[in-house]
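Need tokens for this chain, all 256 residues.
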Amino acid sequence: MIELKGISKIFKKAEAKKGKVYGIAPKISLKALDQVSFTCRPGRIYTLIGPNGAGKTTALRIIASMLKPSEGTVRVAGIDINKDARQARAKLGFLTGSTGLYDRLTPRETLKYFGALHMVDPKTIRSRMGDLIDRLAISEFADRRVGKLSTGQKQRVSIARTLMHDPEVIIFDEPTNGLDVLTSRTITEWIRECRNTGKTVIFSTHIMGEVSLLSDDLGIIHKGKLCYDGSFADFKARFGHHSLESAFISILEGAE
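Here are the structure tokens for all 256 residues:
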């Protein structure tokens, strides 16, 4: 389970000022998130959508303990990330549109490395690696260097890397961005399978077809504020006479 309560995030930055005195630049604050609260439950997919710059990725990075919130609490699998981020990360997998793999390693070496990094025992690493290589159709390029792989092949390896330690909670941050139809379908099938095996899944996308295909619950974020939080079934019932795009825009306009 993922629980966010009253999460705010303020970024502070210095702005160069013409003719600044004594080298002191004024500080400008950017509030990326403003009192955001929602819950993602096991066995359900919580889809987080919003315009570019709305705060989606900031929220996901806070959940993954990559960023610290300025205010509020986050619990991942019952663990407060402010108190024990390392233990929370052990329960979590994070997949983005950018694969973040080492070009000089092969997929097989990559999976061994990340399994060991998560302190998975060698026997389980071999078993899980073999299973993931087979099910994600990685075998034909499992011993080729990652730097030589296509974008779609790299993303398959990245999915396997994310799942090597069998995390309870999985974050998918626009994982199909820029991918071909077949690879995108592979990823959406895996997101659904994660849900069906009882994992907690939070999924960010800008592709409305994926929202309809995968969502159990839905959060809409705009200018750092959560302006819709509920089941996708309730959302469709409320806006049934609208297209998904029109309903989304209606929510955003109502939040202005």
